Amino acid sequence: MTSPSLSPSPVTVVVRYFASARAAAGTEEEKVELAAGATVADAVQALRELHPGQLSRVLDAASFLVNEVAVRDRGRALGDGSHLDVLPPFAGG
C-alpha cells in the first residue's frame, strides 16, 4: 500500500510597503500566498501581478528586507509567516 503524496503547503508572507511603494500598491500591508519554497524573486513577481502598473517601476528600484534583515540575494527562500518589506530608494540627507 502506498501513501498519498502530500504536496508542500503554501507559505503566507506579510508584505509591508513604505513611501512610494505604499502609494503605488494602494495599501500599507498585505498577505500574499506563495508556493512552498518561494523566493524573494517569486514574491516580487507575484506583487507585479497583483499590482500591475506603477508598483512595477518601484519594485525595479526597491531594496528588500526579510524579517528586518537586508536581502542581497533575491533567491533567498521565504518561510511561512515571513515579513517582506519593500523599500523604494529614499532621497535626503
TrEMBL record:
Gene3D superfamilies: 3.10.20.30. It holds the Pfam family ThiS. It comes from the Bacteria. The keyword rRNA-binding does not apply. Signal peptide: none annotated. The keyword Nucleotide-binding applies. Keywords: Nucleotide-binding. Belongs to the MoaD family. This is Molybdopterin synthase sulfur carrier subunit. It comes from Amycolatopsis albidoflavus. The lineage of its organism: Bacteria, Bacillati, Actinomycetota, Actinomycetes, Pseudonocardiales.
